[in-house]
What we know:
- This protein is about 55% helix and about 0% strand.
- The protein is mainly alpha-helical.
Amino acid sequence: MSPQQIVEQLKAIGVRVDISQVHAWEFGENSPTEQELFALADVLWCRTADLMGIGEPRTLTEHRLARQFTTARLAGSIAMDTAQYERAEQQNVWTGDAQQTAALLRLLNLTPLQLTKATEQSGAPEPVSRRVHAR
Length: 135
């Protein structure tokens, strides 16, 4: 798919970008927003994780993005304050109660071990997207 076709397809589903943005994504000069990333995955019929350049999600952020949830939508779906959920991602520490944890596991299709691994990563979480390859 050419960059112009991507622009047109994104526009058709309500996401407006210009061709310079698509070129910037292709060359790793800029990353799409979450909304753009999710729409781009839909347009290209691929997984969000593929666009992020990861094989399997490792962090809580990557797991959330791979399932195409915004922080607000996921937090609301597990009955957690958005700011609290965002802190969990930023700090790689899960603070949810038993009900929130069960909901998170179900929505992100995680096992308890995967959640433990995702929240014990050292250092800062990975950026939302690395290099995006338009097809």
